[in-house]
Write a structure and sequence with these properties.
The chain has 391 residues and is α/β, with parallel strands linked by helices. It contains eight helices and 18 strands. Strands 5, 6, 12, 13, 14, 15, 16, 17 and 18 form a nine-stranded antiparallel sheet that branches. Strands 3-2-1-4-7 form a five-stranded parallel sheet, sandwiched between helices. The relative contact order is 0.13.
């Protein structure tokens, strides 16, 4: 079988290529360039040029063909433009999830097919299984064996068709095992640090990056005191899904102006850095914003009640089922485990499908439920579906 391996310059994809070649497959290494602009990039981290050089070295070491593909136009239109649009609305997107859905397992697969490849492999820490029923094969996306590196969350928007063409060779390994294999094979990136930051862009100063298209605007920073939430006692109890999932509503009169900021759209719920206001015993955290009035709302301390909510809501158009055979019908509910961000431990919750959309009601209050991020739900280590948090 001919398999295109997405060589990123990192150790995980390098070992993935090695394992597939050892298994006797016809391998071609492919490197994706997806971003050119360095505006807002924090230099000193791995640039794409460094990644490219190391990917070439890996290909030479493994004696496999190497291809370079420039997907920057698609990445700009399908990932970066989406990022800017979401931030402009006051939502916080996850570009890594979008990059996997729109680029790595869409545009990249088509490029690989053009080179005669049947499948695409990456260094993601997750696994694929399948079963047949009624003559139809269904693919299952499973968490990686390494609980500290499981990356299934980043693939939560993949479709059955995309999974049918994907291979994850390191998903059954622990990270130390991957490092060991790389060292044993003298791969040039055996000790290279894992990449961080936005997919294919790297670590960025987010406000500087966003100011490419979103102008800075001075606005008021208003502190909300814990006593404000006493009136929400009834709203966060019982079985009224709409009330449970509704974000707290603030107005400038509900608190005290304590400073100014450069644009509410540059901040996200739960954020600590960048508020730059002193005079408090504990750090300030973002608890909300109003894009129309350009007002930023903050609260003091990690346990501030404005950081915690019981439930969230997902619009029908933004619900995605990897396992379509398990999709909920209106009026149905089911208990799953859910995470609302990468690396968050799975949380017990009930999913309830209502006429207006999907509600997720957690057993315990959740910190930092953020509109624009993805909620992903699991059962017994399998990722069943996901959706964009609306509220």
């Amino acid at each position: 079988m001919k398999i295109a391996v997405g060589l990123s310059g990192g150790v995980d994809s390098a070992v993935a290529a090695y394992l597939l070649k050892q298994a006797g497959h016809d391998i071609v290494g492919m490197f994706m360039q997806n971003w050119h602009d360095t505006t807002g990039t924090l230099h000193g981290n791995c640039s794409w040029e460094d990644d490219l050089d190391i990917a070439k070295m890996v290909a030479r070491k493994l004696d496999i063909p190497f291809e370079f593909v420039d997907l920057s136009e698609d990445y700009s239109k399908r990932v970066v433009d989406y990022m800017f649009a979401e931030y402009e609305k006051g939502r916080t997107p996850n570009p890594d999830v979008l990059c996997n859905r729109e680029i790595k397992f869409d545009v990249f697969i088509k490029k690989a097919n053009g080179l005669g490849a049947d499948m695409v492999a990456t260094g993601h820490y997750c696994r694929i299984a399948s079963f047949e029923s009624g003559g139809r094969k269904t693919f299952r996306l499973l968490a990686g064996k390494d609980p500290n590196k499981d990356q299934s969350y980043f693939l939560c928007q993949l479709s059955q068709e995309q999974l049918s063409k994907a291979i994850f060779p390191v998903g059954h390994l622990l990270k130390p095992d991957v490092r060991r294999i790389a060292a044993e094979q003298n791969l040039p990136n055996a000790d290279r640090k894992d990449s961080q930051g936005i997919c294919f862009v790297g670590k960025v100063d987010l406000p500087v990056f966003l100011q490419q298209k979103l102008a800075a605007r001075k606005g008021d920073t208003v502190e909300i005191m814990p006593a404000f939430y006493e009136k929400y006692g009834e709203a966060v109890s019982g079985d009224n899904y709409k009330n449970l999932s509704a974000p707290f509503k603030y107005s400038p009169n509900d608190g005290k102006k304590i400073g100014v900021h450069d644009g509410a759209h540059f901040f996200t719920t739960g954020q600590r850095r960048g508020i730059n206001i002193g005079g408090h015993v504990e750090p300030l955290f973002v608890i909300g914003s109003d894009i129309e009035t350009n007002t930023l709302y903050v609260g003091e301390g990690r346990s501030h009640p404005g950081l915690f909510r019981k439930a969230l809501f997902i619009n029908p158009a933004e619900i995605h089922w990897i396992r379509k055979d398990l999709a909920l019908s209106e009026g149905e509910s089911v208990d799953y485990e859910v995470r609302i961000r990468y690396r968050q431990p799975l949380q017990k919750a009930k999913l309830a499908m209502q006429p207006e959309g999907l509600y997720i009601i957690f057993d315990k209050l959740q910190r930092g439920i953020t509109p624009g991020q993805f909620a992903a739900w699991y059962f017994d280590g399998e990722l069943i579906g996901s959706g964009v948090i609306n509220a």
